[in-house]
Write a structure and sequence with these properties.
By secondary structure, this protein is an all-beta fold. Helices cover 3% and strands 36% of the residues. The radius of gyration is 22 Å and the shape is globular. The protein starts with a strand and ends in an 8-residue tail after the last strand.
């Protein structure tokens, strides 16, 4: 049963038609030998939501109806620090007479549709390249980048990225933005700091930033400023650094960035009159720290062997309530040429097989491996601004909610790829189990370090491409949602 409120349409997941597929009918499992498996469990209990509308903002307000009881009393204003908004999963939009944004509200187990007031025929081909502080980021192949607040429908167009430095032999080479985050919401006009956007771009995953607005209402930058060193030299050889992820700490007023080699940097971009200041966090990287590396602790033999076979994608995750910073390593099994010797069968879609998490102690310059618990946190990674919140109320603690890694997602202009956007799920860090998220199926990854099974036996033939790829989103804290 669906209801509508001022352009918003609310559906329970069981009634939603926005998913690409129905929920899998059977339990799907990924077994590292007999130690790791997928589980079909979900901790979403039955619930219903009352919706009301603030007349001046046209924003949803929710109150839960718990199992076996009536509606809860209206929630009083939160104490400081405020609780973070519940995460939403951005689903592919509905193209009807008008385009609707579709969001899966994780804690409430409900889909909400928001009218974009845009005609489907007028929508350009765009990539989703980020989600940060209640805003979605888009990159168009004709060098049109913008961010959008889907609740207020406000757009901010960004400077061209084509003036940024790249190395190419092609004179008309057009490159893309691969990820964008914000230091704060542009709607927070009372904030003392500028609103700064940081991006990675080009195949080399270089860094750049610009000010979208200044404190006091000043205008933003007209161009991007490149930062960071794209290469480093070792033993007379040159290697690409590739900045894989970055987050912003409002408490420290710093951007933290991580490269593919797990190098972590802190960038101070506050003063527009001074050059950007970078401080490297010089601690032992995970691969160099034998006493703090998890091969002999959490993982069973097959899992450890598989993790050594494949590359890991690095993410930075920030818990804003406690200002804790984490390094997350995501291991993805794929069929890249360098991995042809691995047990991944031909035609098998790239798939996340494991995670390792480290807490970063910035003052002590130490990495602390999280052995079998995330201290009750739920972490959300993907193309979004990486964040962590306390589990509970429909959100699984000690879990990692992940969407497709940008390093593997095919470009939207790649019409030949039959997969992409599909690597979505929930990883129980303590039990080393995977579970599906929303209605998206998760394949049975039945290969191990020494065993191959055909594609059909794994259920991988049921995996389809999802366009655009889902990503995590949090409504702006500027509004009471």
């Amino acid at each position: 049963m669906a209801s509508s409120t001022a352009g918003f349409v609310h559906q329970r997941v069981a009634d939603s038609e926005s998913a690409n597929w129905a929920s899998p009918k059977c339990v799907l499992g990924f077994r590292f030998g007999s130690s790791i498996r997928f589980s079909r469990k979900q901790n979403f209990g039955p619930s219903s939501i009352r919706f009301s509308r603030k007349e001046n903002l046209n924003i949803i307000t929710t109150a839960a109806v718990r199992d076996g009881g009536g509606a809860d009393d209206d929630v009083s204003p939160p104490k400081s620090p405020p609780s973070p908004p519940s995460p939403w999963l951005v689903l592919p939009p509905s193209l009807e007479k008008e385009m609707y944004f579709n969001f899966y509200m994780l804690a409430e187990n409900r889909v909400v549709k928001i009218n974009s007031n845009k005609q489907p025929s007028s929508l350009p081909l765009i990539n989703y390249v980020g989600s940060s502080h209640g805003w979605l980021a888009y990159s168009h192949y004709e060098d049109k980048q913008f961010i959008c607040n889907p609740l207020t429908r406000r757009r901010i167009y960004l400077p061209s990225i084509q003036s940024l430095p790249v190395e190419t032999i092609y004179p008309d080479y057009n490159f893309y933005m691969s990820k964008l985050i914000l230091s704060r919401s542009p709607d927070d006009v009372d904030e003392e700091d500028d609103c700064i956007a940081m991006i990675s771009y080009d195949d080399n995953e270089r860094l750049a930033f610009c000010r979208l607005s200044r404190h006091g209402g000043g205008s933003g930058d007209t161009e991007w400023t490149p930062i960071g060193k794209p290469y480093f030299e070792l033993d007379d050889k040159t290697f690409k650094r590739e900045y894989q992820d970055f987050v912003y700490s409002a408490k420290r007023k710093l951007f933290f960035c991580v490269t593919q080699y797990a190098e972590i940097e802190a960038w101070d971009l506050r003063d527009p009159r001074s050059p950007p200041k970078m401080t490297p966090l010089d601690f032992l990287k995970p691969d160099d720290d034998d006493e703090n590396h998890p091969w002999g602790s959490v993982g069973k033999l097959d899992e450890c062997e598989l993790k050594e076979m494949f590359d890991s994608v690095k993410y930075l995750v920030l818990c804003e309530q406690t200002d804790q910073l984490f390094l997350v390593r995501r291991y993805v099994a794929d069929r890249k040429p360098a991995h042809y010797h691995t047990p991944v069968p031909p035609g098998f879609p790239y798939s996340t097989i494991s995670f390792d998490v480290y807490e970063i102690d910035i003052e002590k310059r130490e990495l602390r491996y999280m052995e079998s618990s995330l201290n009750g946190l739920a972490m959300f990674i993907g193309i979004n601004h990486g964040f962590a919140i306390q589990g509970g109320n429909g959100i699984n603690p000690d879990s990692i909610y992940f969407t497709d890694a940008k390093e593997y997602t095919p470009d939207y202009l790649d019409e030949d790829s039959e997969i992409g956007g599909h690597d979505i799920g929930v990883f129980d860090y303590a039990k080393r189990d995977f579970a599906p998220c929303y209605n998206y199926p998760i394949e049975e990854r039945t290969f191990s370090a020494t065993l191959r099974l055909p594609r059909a036996a794994s259920g991988a033939d049921k995996i389809k491409r999802i366009e655009p790829p889902p990503m995590w989103f949090t409504p702006s804290t500027s509004f009471d949602t």
